[in-house]
Write a structure and sequence with these properties.
It contains 6 helices and 13 strands. By secondary structure, it is α/β, with parallel strands linked by helices. It has a single domain (about 5-215, about 295-305), classed as 3-Layer(aba) Sandwich (Aminopeptidase). The protein binds zinc ion.
Amino acid sequence: MASLLGAQAPLTRVAIFGGTHGNELSGVLLVKHWEEDGAEVQRPGLRVTPFISNPRAVQRGVRYVDCDLNRVFDAARLGQEPPEDRPYEVGRAQEIRRLFGAYDVILDLHNTTSNMGCALILESSQDDLLIQMFRYIQSSLAPTPCFVYLIDHPSLKYATTRSIAKHPVGIEVGPQPQGVLRADILQQMRSMVKHALDFIQFFNEGKEFPACSLEVYQVTGKVDYPRKANGEIAAVIHPSLQDQDWKPLRPGEPTFLTLDGATIPFDGDAPVYPVFVNEAAYYEKGEAFAKTRRVTLTARRLNAAPAGSAP
Ligand SMILES: [Zn+2]
């Protein structure tokens, strides 16, 4: 294929998910607001659907009821016949796929307790449209930084709620405690959604986006807390690593601190860029932080077929 991607068909159906995790409240509040008054998220020629993805978890103020909704969109569970003991979130996942499986873009709104600032989560390094969108969001947010976390690892990738769309977009903003609303975090998330929708509108109007590159942080592994034989945590994130998401952690640098005051150094053989450092929801997943490496992706020149033109 030539260096021009497209002309692609316009994107017509977009969903905005809040409450995929019921205790990540920025997205819950924004989506409920847009369900009442959606003028802010409507764009000409586009159907934008705000949607609370896990209403039972939202009502209870918890991450999930039976199991993590953001991990069950794999073929096995989506194809599961509905038995009586089916977890709530598996049934919900099947319903969400039925409703949104043909959507072009899903913006899935999350908060993290980690100091990650504005972050976008990319599932494929081949998705030129999203690479272009993320560049656009970054430049629109500047000078506020906006980082991109790439989760295309063959064994670490998980079956996200948004993965049913052609172009799945994770929007992750922190730090914000679970069950808490902070105005600064809410406003950052709101801006990211605005810029994402603006990009889609410009793309549909036939605006051309030149070839671009995008720096991303690609997941390479997960690091668990040191644990006792019974599985309990034996050390905490070291103060010098706390809040240092996206910054290099070099071999030998302090990583954990034991209750005896001993420092446990990072035992990798090369620097990594930690993300999701001390994320509250990941204690149960055995993850103190994720290791990433910096990679530069490129995207071809992009423009859509203007509406009404021949394919
Ligand atoms: Zn989440």
